[in-house]
Design brief:
The two termini are about 35 Å apart. Among the domains are: about 5-10 and about 175-235; about 20-170, P-loop containing nucleotide triphosphate hydrolases (Rossmann fold, 3-Layer(aba) Sandwich), CATH 3.40.50; about 760-830, no CATH class; about 835-890, Arc Repressor Mutant, subunit A. By secondary structure, it is mostly helical. About 65% of the residues lie in helices and about 5% in strands. The protein has a 5-stranded parallel sheet with strand order 2-3-4-1-5, with helices on both faces. A 3-stranded mixed sheet has the order 6-8-7. A 3-stranded antiparallel sheet has the order 9-11-10. It has 44 helices and 11 strands.
């Protein structure tokens, strides 16, 4: 794990800058190109990019000179470039002197030096004239960085024609920030951490670096050995970062400072509100300086800070009384306009609460409900806790308990539910408390027996048919969530499409998502996908009427796995990533954890070892921070499996030991028959397989599959049984997989059954057809293994061309699997018996070159090229160029 000092010392990766570096490389080669100008805002990484250009030039054997232009150096003619001028050159006659400099640097015009000028816009006029003459004489190639938005009076001197190439460096995208963090930290970074770092830095490379260094120094950024996580809290970075921002903001006028203070505390604000504290020309100046931006939302113009970190720095400098005045004034302005927008009540209440520590209880109730609707759980806690004890209602306590549950604080949530129970006076209120108690006990504390006891107690005191129906739905959720989907569906199949038919909409919304998961586990995949879409639409329509509606993405989350098992792993992956992208921006940690869990399973089915490892680690990290114990046990086992799949047996063993310790803390789960954990079985079996104990691995999987079959969990049972076949036990499981395929609607179950049958039947042609069908579903690793098994059978039948073709297919598929090693893959020899000349011709042909183009390039006759290609086709077992790229693994 890198230290802050190591991160500070190492150069940061140039993610997304390849195009610019390639442009520079081409400029070096073509003498007609005189310069490359790199434009971009401050901190975006222009200097780092220029350094990379210098490194490339020096590796090519060119002389480079580094020039840093500054405002101070600009006060002296040639102040910045003086060190470039060779000793002894007389500059008393500038025309002759400049020519002498050009001659000395150019060494007679045979070579060019590379002149890298950082902050070109600060260069003095005399230096500009010298640089221009060096470029025109062919003595120097200019690489210059220019800060966007700064005055650049000498721009015309460098021109914009074909001889000067301009490139604009943009801030990192969120995806690029994730790549940078993973590279710098040397490991996987949680999606939430990447998102928060992107949001705080706005993709600015300099700000991102200082934020990472600051988080490492403070201990806010840590790794559990698999994934880096950022602790909650403000993102202020290092003292250097705060000084840089403060210096940038120091140019702002007094009126501009008032606007920045308003935005730091209340952004976004209407343009009219900003004009209430400053004149329009002050706002225009702030926009020119890059301190604020104006965005259009419908018919309104909103003013925001140009960068998220500006608010952190400005807030630090606002005195307490000044802060109070700004907040109360803005609240009064909004109220004077009628506070008509939906979120106005939330803003006004929050500002008054921050300013004075109190607010109108009626407003607090209303604001808390709005915050809950937008899934802002920290705000819900803050608003409800601000209410005086005498003003608390059952609804308030339920809102608070729900927010605490979502934030991973189930013990505190249980305390609030006990208080809500003591306040409840009606059957409706009592039912709401029991339902919330079940959710918290099951999903937050992993105490299924406690939730069932609460249901039994409720049946003793709640008598109405509506209440009993809600209790039955809760029981179905518990059974399905505890690995008994068939039993759970006996209760959940009564759910109506219309949530209004249930007396408690919050219960319906939770139960709808559990029903999708239960349908998926029992192989009712089309029904699961259709139900998920209907439930999602209903969720969108009625969630504002529910006291504690989960995030709507939870309805589609189980459909991720249903889509994969239906035979489209690619679409399942895309759906899961879309859902995770929605959730990563919210405080909804539990849905995020489940989507990560389903994505991990999808990647396991695909055989993508790194993807499975990353998403399992993400799931475990979220679970640990949110007390999300339900899927954590399975994800820990699956994480060990994905480690073992790439040969990391030590980390896999350590993860299984950690799972043993976690099981000791969750012993009560055995009460519900959860001794069978598919993920744990996978982890133990693949660790055994990776250490050479194949018979024990198969026995472990078979034992776990027996327990899953009794519960109706066809999905997990089939997943374990196909791995038995992959580990040499196809004969033991072929019939069982066929029975599962007959009961399941999924294409994946059918092709898994055929895979096992083909392995058992020693039929290489059947295996090759199955390999193609597996690839069509997205199951790359199983497809590679089927091809590997076929290659071995072809080889035993002395069909060498067919064996080579199957082996090459295996290799091409295995390359997608991110380093996965399995016993079947180890049986195939993928060495291609091509000569050096044959390999060279084959790769050119695979890349699309014609025989004529290959002949011209290699100085051969077309006939010779075609003869070599015919020999290659024979050795590789392909029939033409169309199959050649796949055979060679060319992408």
């Amino acid at each position: 794990m890198p230290t802050r000092h190591e991160v500070w010392e190492r150069p940061w990766p140039l993610v997304g800058r390849d195009r610019i570096l390639d442009l520079f490389t081409q400029a070096v080669r073509h003498r007609r190109v005189q310069g490359v100008l790199i434009h971009g805002p401050a901190g975006v990484g222009k200097t780092r990019l220029a350094e990379a250009c210098r490194d490339r030039a020096e590796k090519a054997g060119l002389t480079t000179h580094w020039v840093v232009a500054t405002a101070a150096a600009a006060a002296v003619p040639l102040g910045a470039v003086g060190h470039v001028i060779p000793p002894g050159v007389d500059l008393s006659d500038p025309v002759a002197g400049f020519a002498a400099v050009a001659a000395a640097l150019g060494r007679g015009g045979e070579d060019r030096v590379v002149l890298l000028i950082d902050d070109l816009h600060l260069l003095d006029a005399t230096s500009v004239m010298l640089v221009r003459q060096l470029m025109d004489s062919g003595s120097a190639l200019l690489i210059g960085t220019v800060r966007t938005g700064e005055p650049y009076p000498m721009a015309a001197a460098f021109g914009t024609g074909d001889a000067i190439h301009r490139v604009d460096v943009e801030a990192f995208t969120e995806e690029q920030v994730a790549q940078v963090l993973a590279s710098v930290l040397g490991g996987s970074v949680s999606a939430r951490t990447s998102h928060e770092m992107y949001a705080a830095s706005a993709g600015n490379a300099l700000y991102l670096r200082e934020l990472v260094l600051g988080a490492l120094s403070s201990g806010a950024l840590n790794s559990d050995g698999e994934v880096w996580q950022l602790a909650p809290g403000p993102r202020t970075g290092t003292p250097r970062l705060r000084e840089l921002i403060a210096a940038r903001l120091s140019r702002v006028s007094e009126a501009g400072t008032a606007v920045l203070e308003l935005l730091a505390l209340c952004e976004p604000v209407a343009l009219a509100d900003a004009q209430a504290v400053a004149r329009l020309h002050d706002l225009v100046e702030l926009e020119r300086l890059g301190c604020l931006k104006v965005v259009k939302e419908g018919r309104r113009h909103l003013v925001m800070l140009a960068h998220p970190l500006y608010g952190e720095v400005v807030r630090e400098g606002i005195a307490e009384l000044r802060r109070r005045t700004i907040l109360l004034d803005q609240a009064a302005r909004l109220e004077a306009r009628g506070a008509r927008r939906q979120d106005d009540a939330l803003h006004v209440t929050s500002w008054r609460l921050t300013a004075t520590g109190t607010a109108d209880p009626r407003r607090l109730h209303e604001a808390a409900a709005l915050a809950r609707h937008s899934h802002d759980y920290p705000q819900v806690v803050r608003l409800i806790q601000a209410l005086p004890a005498s003003a608390h209602t059952v609804r308030d306590r339920l809102l608070l308990a729900d927010a605490l549950f979502e934030l991973g604080r189930p013990e505190e949530a249980e305390n609030e539910l006990e208080r809500a129970s003591s306040l409840s006076t009606t059957e409706h209120e009592r039912l709401a408390v029991v339902a919330a108690y079940c959710v918290n006990a099951l999903w937050g504390m992993a105490q299924a027996s406690k939730a069932l006891r609460m249901i039994d107690a409720g049946r003793g005191e709640l008598q109405s048919p509506e209440s009993l129906a809600v209790l039955a739905i809760n029981e179905g959720c518990i059974l399905a969530a505890c690995g008994q989907p068939t039993a759970g569906l006996a209760f959940l199949d009564v759910l109506e499409d219309d949530a209004g038919a249930t007396s408690d909409m919050s219960v319906w919304l939770f139960a709808a998502a559990v029903r999708t998961r239960a349908l998926q586990m029992t192989g009712r995949l089309r029904e699961a996908q259709n139900w998920a879409e209907r439930a999602h639409a209903t969720h969108r329509r009625v969630s504002r009427l529910a006291t504690s509606a989960p995030h709507p993405a939870i309805q589609r989350a189980p459909a991720v796995l249903a889509t994969a098992e239906a035979g489209d792993i690619h679409e399942a992956r895309a759906l899961g990533r879309r859902l995770f992208g929605e959730l990563v921006r919210s405080e909804a940690g539990l849905p995020r954890m489940w989507v990560a869990y389903f994505l991990a399973r999808v990647e396991w089915l695909a055989g993508h070892a790194a993807g499975a490892r990353r998403w399992n680690a993400e799931c475990v990290a979220i679970a640990r921070s949110h007390h999300g114990t339900r899927p954590m046990r399975d994800a820990m086992g699956s994480l060990a499996a994905s480690m073992a799949l790439v040969g990391d047996t030590g980390p896999a063993a350590a993860e299984l030991s950690a799972l043993d310790r976690a099981d000791a803390d969750m012993a009560e789960l055995e009460f519900m028959g959860l001794a069978v954990s598919p993920g744990r079985a996978l982890g133990e079996a693949w660790h055994l397989a990776a250490t050479g104990h194949l018979a024990q691995a198969r026995a472990r999987l078979l034992h776990a599959a027996e327990g899953l079959g009794d519960s109706g969990n066809l999905s997990a049972e089939g997943m374990l049984l196909v791995d038995v076949a992959r580990l040499g036990g196809a004969r033991d499981v072929a019939d069982r997989l066929a029975r599962i395929a007959a009961r399941s609607e999924g294409a994946l179950a059918t092709v898994h059954a055929d895979f096992a049958a083909a392995l058992d039947g020693d039929d290489p042609e059947w295996l090759m057809r199955t390999s193609q069908r597996l690839e069509d579903t997205g199951s790359d690793l199983a497809a590679a293994e089927a091809a590997a098994a076929a290659a071995g059978l072809f080889r035993r039948q002395r069909l060498s061309r067919r064996a080579t073709a199957a082996a090459l297919r295996c290799r091409g598929l295995a390359e997608r699997c991110e380093g996965a090693h399995t016993p079947l893959l180890a049986t195939v020899d993928v060495t291609v018996p091509l000569t050096r000349r044959q390999s060279e011709i084959a790769r050119l042909a695979a890349a699309g070159a014609t025989s004529q183009e290959i002949a011209d390039r290699l100085v051969l006759s077309i006939r010779t090229v075609d003869n070599h290609l015919a020999q290659v086709y024979g050795k590789l077992g392909v029939t033409g160029r169309r199959d050649l790229a796949r055979a060679l693994g060319t992408r």
